[in-house]
Known about the structure:
The radius of gyration is 37 Å and the shape is elongated. The strands form two sheets. The chain has a four-stranded antiparallel beta sheet, with no helix packed on it. Strands 1-4 form a two-stranded parallel sheet. With 473 residues, the chain is α+β, with helices and mostly antiparallel strands. The protein is built from nine helices and six strands. It has helices at residues 2-6, 62-74, 76-95, 146-213, 218-252, 281-284, 289-310, 355-422, 427-461, and strands spanning 44-47, 102-114, 126-141, 275-278, 315-326, 338-347. Helices cover 57% and strands 12% of the residues.
Amino acid sequence: xxxxxxxxxxxxxxxxxxxxxxxxxxxxxxxxxxxxxxxxxxxxxxxxxxxxxxxxxxxxxxxxxxxxxxxxxxxxxxxxxxxxxxxxxxxxxxxxxxxxxxxxxxxxxxxxxxxxxxxxxxxxxxxxxxxxxxxxxxxxxxxxxxxxxxxxxxxxxxxxxxxxxxxxxxxxxxxxxxxxxxxxxxxxxxxxxxxxxxxxxxxxxxxxxxxxxxxxxxxxxxxxxxxxxxxxxxxxxxxxxxxxxxxxxxxxxxxxxxxxxxxxxxxxxxxxxxxxxxxxxxxxxxxxxxxxxxxxxxxxxxxxxxxxxxxxxxxxxxxxxxxxxxxxxxxxxxxxxxxxxxxxxxxxxxxxxxxxxxxxxxxxxxxxxxxxxxxxxxxxxxxxxxxxxxxxxxxxxxxxxxxxxxxxxxxxxxxxxxxxxxxxxxxxxxxxxxxxxxxxxxxxxxxxxxxxxxxxxxxxxxxxxxxxxxxxx
Length: 473
């Protein structure tokens, strides 16, 4: 009765989730309700608005949506994480078997000889057969909860793997959307640079003609040739990044680069989300899979302290067996053929050279490391959200400035073209104005692309629509 009463307790710390951070804002001075206007667009943060599961749909591209869905179904890294989760769940179920009695059935047939002289008998030595059929039931009393802590650790590790699936899903979707946006930006930059190269090449031809006519210096021609070469040199790296984006998109979708069509999205077909979710700091630690995984690993480390502590204490095992023996199979159930036994054993470690003590010390150190790791993951999560929020503010200002520069360059080009038609400006002036417009366009494309990518970064920093409710997906 005492043993069964003690079986209700378990040594080691009882795990409790770490307290939620008490901070109210992500950035110093408070979180803004909206970004500054950029290109006439303001991104607002709606308090309490959930992060959509399929957050990428907020960018308004059906082709992007289809690509992400295909990748989620076929990505090998996500399949690895899901298989690891199934393995971890199976390990928990296997470990839970220790709570049940262990039943074994055995049958044996042997041929033996005896020497009766050892018993003081003069009966001649005999040879005979022995057939045995029996069953054994054993049960280890979990007196100090060591088995329960071990299964608790396995369950926590399975939780960590479950959140690893969420992290893999989040990484996959975020990388794919970012890659699609980057590719669209590279394509737009290549197109604008091609137009600029055409303009500068035409400037070179006109200046060369002026040099031949003696109305311009050769240095002017060389300056334009240098500018032309520098511009042409920027196109191959952009094309290389574009192709790398195609290869990465194919790989993420579980395809070979040679067998996949590129995700050719136009930059202006990707919508900038205007209404963004705002996750409270107290909720962030309950949403991000990396934070939840760190908490699960902390739980596992806590349980391992209990396992190591229980190993230092006595253990009790109960065993019962029953069987039948006979010299012939038909005699197994004859009278007098029954055999049985009941046993109880207790074992307690006395001296093991400090092995158990230092094993518990190691488990305690591992638990402290897991605590520090959890704090570090939480800090990094808050920093990522803060970075994304501030980046969107700066992106809005940058895009607005680049857009104003582009508008001014467009207006300048229109005026110079009008003067050229009126005969008050030369064609070379038109080309110079056109070059300024294309350069301003490239700067705008870069700023707009960065704004889209930083919006993706915010979705990912907030957990990307993955949370506790998604753990069973």
